[in-house]
Design a protein that fits this description.
By secondary structure, this protein is α+β, with helices and mostly antiparallel strands. The protein has 12 helices and 18 strands. A 5-stranded mixed beta sheet has the order 3-2-1-9-10, sandwiched between helices. Helix 5 crosses helix 11 and helix 6 crosses helix 7.
Length: 329
């Protein structure tokens, strides 16, 4: 085994290998027993499915917040459980190496925490790569070429706008408006405007939309009537969802604007030619790409695999250590 590429996200954890591609794509959730809080009882989708229905004596834990580690012990238990799934020792015989993505705006302390957790969870050697750089590489962009590229990463806990060129970051902005705030905004809208209370998973599905509903103009949302407490269904127009999320998406656009203002004129010329690359799970949000294009008059391309391209790029870094070396400072 030649190592792992790992994207430890606030909402999803994605792991890839050079030989097998993406080998794990699961929610960043973990269940622990209250009497044994540092050992994972379940992780990923199995843990996520119990949101709102967790039995007594069991707690849901989210080890990542805003793309960085919240609690070292919980993160170590989570990463250990992930490694047991994707790289069991009995199969590979030795501890694997890994490249882990980190937010471009992570502090030295936050970066050290990622390295520490990786080593303690059983990784032999750990390299760090900024998430936007990994995402760009995963989309076929060469982050070492002498040409500016602008990447917008809209994840679960944070949104980042990063301009890269020739192995370095030339501009970066971030904000705490991202997928979770978008879900909360829709949850609040449904309660205020339709008097219906929905679960977190239902709001998430309504926000993004399933692939098979991409072309539909409305969708059915189930929940509890806020007045009677009875189960209820409503039909929701896609345009209403877009408008309900607009105040939050506007904040993300304003962050992009600030990053553009920091760019030198020649870099802006590159961006106008190449366009803006949008990555991250929330890049699939209805109407987001159109809002970016509408606001800035720049061509916008959403990654073909926005949820997994960061892990794919981190995996590619195993064969391109020069990228990790260039962006490790």
């Amino acid at each position: 085994m030649r190592g792992l590429g790992i994207d430890l996200g606030t909402t999803n954890t994605v792991v890839g290998t050079l030989d097998d591609g993406i080998v794990l794509n699961e929610p960043s959730f973990m269940l622990v027993r209250n009497k044994d809080p540092h050992r994972a009882l379940a992780i990923g989708q199995d843990a996520r499915n119990l949101v709102g229905r967790t039995p007594a004596g069991i707690t849901q834990v989210r080890p990542m917040r805003d793309g960085v580690i919240v609690d070292l012990e919980s993160a170590r238990a989570f990463v250990t459980a992930v490694l047991e799934q994707v790289a069991p020792h009995r199969r590979y015989g030795r501890r694997p190496t890994a490249v882990i993505s980190a937010p471009a705006g992570a502090t030295p302390l936050e970066r050290r925490a990622l390295l520490e957790v990786g080593h303690e969870a059983g990784l032999r050697k750990v390299g760090l790569i900024p998430g936007p750089v990994a995402g760009a590489l995963g989309c076929g962009v060469n982050p070492l070429e002498p040409r500016a590229h602008l990447i917008v990463s809209v994840g679960g806990g944070t949104s980042e706008v990063t301009a890269i060129c020739f192995g370095g970051v030339i501009s970066h902005r971030s904000c705490q408006l991202a997928g979770e705030e978008l879900t909360e905004a829709l949850h609040h809208h449904l309660r205020e405007e339709h008097q219906i209370i929905v679960g977190e998973l239902t709001a998430e599905r309504a926000k993004i939309g399933a692939p098979e509903t991409a072309g539909e103009q409305s969708l059915v949302v189930e929940g509890l009537d806020a007045v009677t407490g009875r189960a209820r269904l409503i039909s929701l127009d896609v345009e209403e969802i877009v408008e309900a999320l607009r105040p939050t998406t506007t904040g993300i656009v304003q962050t992009l604007a600030a990053c553009l203002e920091d760019l030198p004129p020649q870099a802006i010329s590159d961006v106008m030619s190449e366009g803006v690359l949008v990555i991250g799970g929330s890049a699939m949000l209805r109407g987001l790409s159109h809002l970016f294009e509408e606001s800035f008059g720049l061509p916008v391309k959403t990654a073909d695999h926005p949820l997994t391209c960061v892990a794919e790029g981190a995996t590619a870094c195993l064969d391109h250590p020069e990228v990790v070396a260039a962006y490790s400072g």
